[in-house]
Amino acid sequence: MNQIFTDDALTRSIRHNVLKATPRSDVSTRTIIVSNRVPTPSEKAATAGGLAVALADAVRPGTIWFGWSGKRADETSKVANITVHDDVTYATIDIAEQDYYKFYAGFSNAALWPLFHFRTGLLRFNRPDYEAYRTVNRAFAEALVPLLKPDDLIWIHDYQLMTMAAELRALGVTNRIGFFLHIPFVPPALLQVLPAANEIVAGLSACDVVGFQTAGDCKAFLDSAELLLNAHPDAEGRYYHDNRMIHAVVTPIGIDAQKFSQLARRAEVTADARRLRESLGERALVLGVDRLDYSKGLPQRFDAFGRLLYTYPQHRRRVNFLQIAARSRQEVGSYQTLRRELDRKAGDINGEFSDFDWVPLRYMTHAVRRSAIAGFYRRAQIGLVTPLRDGMNLVAKEYVAAQDEQDPGVLVLSRFAGAADELTEALIVNPFDADEVAEAIHLGLTMGLEERRERHEALLAKVRYSNASRYCEAFLGYLKDPN
Ligand code: GDG
Predict the structure, then answer these.
(1) Domain 257-464's class?
(2) Neighbouring-strand partners of residue 361
(3) Whether residue 210 has pLDDT greater than 80
(4) Cα-to-centroid distance, 170 and ligand 1 (Å)
(5) Measured between alpha carbons, how far is 420 from 182 in angstroms, rounded to an integer?
(6) How far is the CA of 79 from the centre of ligand 1 (A)?
(7) How far is residue 295's CA from residue 272's CA, in Å, rounded to a whole number?
(8) Nearest atom, ligand 1, residue 391 CA
(9) Protein residue with its CA nearest to atom 5 in ligand 1
(10) H or E stretch including 414?
(11) Domain coordinates of the chain in residue numbers?
């Protein structure tokens, strides 16, 4: 109980799927996955059941997962600590306490994260934070170099490590390097707000392949390279920088839909799911599942639920909204402010609409077991996924995969989630318009079975198709192919 949510989507995607997709047949090259955080085998066991089985079956010997151990020390490690577990080599380094805060809470999460989610008003830039970011990226590169073999493919993940490829090149590394950005990329007019914009685009241009969630993100990056580096991208997203060719590609991330559907089916009979069912009785469930993050549009979502109860009184006493908002990044000030805002809004809505035997909004800030979440999705008539900006948003895909195909719920999805590019049969909304979101929830709650099935069938086909292994194969395909 009351744990802070650390099992983020990125870590899980890599753990379950990137490693899994590493082809066994190709014995000449190893794939080295680099991400900020690498969970230890014991953490993995605690956070994801069945993981050991998945990895044992899927990872070929020799795959390496490199990154931060999760430990802060007096000094950043120069040499990686190696453990091998279930055929995966975990190579981790500790980060110096003095750098960590500036690197992680500072430049990564108080500058890059807000900027890349179009929130320039929340951006806090200072040079010591940026220098610590560069220092940590360099330390990652220095500790990785001794582990490298000439044919290794290096696949770096996400915004904490945008200058690592440049550091590797500076150390003489000539291996193929790929980078995938899990969050959105911003158009140059916004990017230039960041004093380090040029170094970030140049840092990414040290890669051979740079991957994005959507065509819009990819275009924004290419526009930035054109403006800031004077690059001339061709129609396929290729350009030259420093006498090397860079290929910008779109490889949207997905989930293991089959596995998640199974999890949801099994979860139906668990104690957690039963408790939720009993507490709801006949009432409909509107469900939100997010990290507690300002990109997820939670205050706006609460407002929309308030509008629903105000505008459509027929739903009063007949519906419950459950928002799971697992705390994350509490060391960053803007996250604490958000939490206070949500506490207040939840109180306002419940104060306004509650009855002595009905409380409309349930809101919790601790993480819930993954299996329980899967069962909750399946019980929910509405999956409410309304980020103000999101790279992809896996919750939307999980919600679709978890539904009972015979009697599915309705996905209400923000047009500003990367997932909206694919999941067009959802009820697509502008999360800034509380009335529009309320209308969509109402529509979903009153939608007939036939339309729900039709929409869900189309969505499920897409979630199954654009899955985790397709994502990995697509990215690694580009990374292996020098043309
Ligand atoms: C980043 C990008 C991109 C949530 N609460 C709990 C919990 N979750 C799980 C969900 C889902 C994951 O966390 C959230 O994934 P999202 O994709 O929605 O969001 P981010 O964490 O912001 O992920 C995002 C993603 O990377 C992958 O590329 O899609 O755009 O921002 O899996 O189920 N899991 C558990 N307890 C919770 O309380 N166990």
Answers:
(1) alpha beta
(2) 321
(3) yes
(4) 34
(5) 15
(6) 31
(7) 28
(8) 30
(9) 290
(10) strand 410-414
(11) 9-254+469-480, 257-464
